[in-house]
Specification:
- By secondary structure, the chain is mostly helical.
- The protein has one domain.
- It has eleven helices and four strands.
- The chain is globular and about 60 Å long.
- The N terminus is likely disordered.
């Protein structure tokens, strides 16, 4: 087993490596089981994925995005070939990285509204979506170095990680990369102060940053104003599921653009990040417990006949206040998502 050395002088022990590998394997197996249920018991599979895993993920990205990037099943799928030393290890250019980030946001904005029409109500469709992403991530690992193509490029989740993970709690050991190969610059895992605006400041970086900071919060609000459709009947449904999210995105984009004329991106990002994550849980938590604005949509368990509405309101307000404190008020500890491994060029001849 190869030693994991870090710039700080720390070394990931053999037992720690085993724990990380077991955790990654367990999460990967859970992912496979979810796909199995989506095919053969759709109700269970849809609940496991859309009503348990997905609602937990945003809060985890806010507090410890480095943990998620260590154990994400799609990341493990993409990096498996690299761990087996079978990858061609190509590096992407800064321009390619910017284009991948834009494409990731386009995928995000296309897929989320389709949840109302297809993925939230169709287990097979969701399973095929996950298999498609898993296949793309695996193929990318065959050709590209470490996290450059999928985890830090094309993955639709990555733009959200950069929006929510701006005040990470702590740096985790990098449980995938044993040495830093400069596969992507800047490395979102190892650099402090990563936000939706990349430090390269290219046209693509600025555009992706504007979409995520300015448009995404309103997009989330608009998404929750649309009900689920349990069958496709006409093209009008397709227009409806996209219309409200795009309206919300347009409104928040205009608001962000106006404010950006007077305030810096650095000052605005925490507020828009907080609005996005708070808006999500403001609607999502009541829906999970049977208090949603569209009865039955996104419901995990119906407590509407058990708990009074005010208890749900208190819980929801408390969670939103936590995000306000965590992202806006709390002092930024300026830690990276993960600890950077030692640079490969410093260890030539040592491995």
């Amino acid at each position: 087993m190869r030693n994991y050395k870090f710039k700080t002088g720390n070394k990931l022990s053999y037992s720690s490596i085993i724990i990380w590998r077991l955790t990654q394997s367990a999460l990967w197996i859970i992912g496979v089981l979810i796909i199995f249920f989506l095919f053969y018991s759709p109700k269970i599979g849809l609940n496991l994925f859309w009503n348990i895993l997905i609602p937990i993920a945003p809060a985890l990205w806010v507090v410890a995005v480095g943990l998620w990037r260590n154990i994400c099943p799609l990341a493990s799928t993409s990096l498996f070939v690299r761990h087996m030393k079978l990858s061609k290890r190509k590096k992407i250019t800064l321009s390619q990285k910017g284009k991948l980030n834009i494409l990731a946001i386009i995928l995000l904005f296309l897929i989320i509204p389709l949840r109302h029409l297809i993925f939230d109500v169709n287990g097979v469709a969701t399973a095929l979506l996950l298999i498609c992403f898993g296949t793309i991530s695996f193929i990318s690992g065959l050709f590209y170095e470490w996290k450059s193509f999928w985890c830090s490029g094309l993955c639709p989740v990555h733009p959200v990680e950069k929006l929510y993970g701006i005040k990470n709690l702590m740096s985790f050991p990098n449980a995938h990369c044993d040495q830093c190969q400069h596969c992507v610059i800047p490395c979102p895992d190892s650099r402090t102060g990563i936000t939706p605006y990349n430090s390269n400041r290219s046209f693509y970086d600025k555009l992706s940053g504007f979409f995520m900071v300015g448009a995404f919060p309103g997009f989330i609000w608009g998404w929750f104003q649309v009900p689920d459709y349990h069958e496709i009947t006409d093209i009008e449904q397709l227009l409806i599921i996209y219309l409200m999210p795009l309206k919300g995105a347009s409104i928040s984009s205009i608001f962000y653009f106006v404010l950006s004329q007077y305030f810096s991106e650095k000052k605005l990002i925490p507020y828009f990040s907080t609005f996005a994550i708070s808006c999500y849980y403001w609607y999502r938590l009541p829906a999970l417990l049977g208090f949603g604005i569209f009865p039955g949509d996104g419901m995990l368990i119906n407590l509407s006949n058990t708990l009074p509405l005010w208890t749900i309101n208190i819980i929801t307000i408390t969670i939103c206040c936590f995000f306000v404190w965590w992202i806006i008020i709390r002092k930024n500890s300026k830690v990276s998502w993960s600890i950077r491994p030692s640079y490969a060029h410093l260890n030539k001849g040592k491995n």
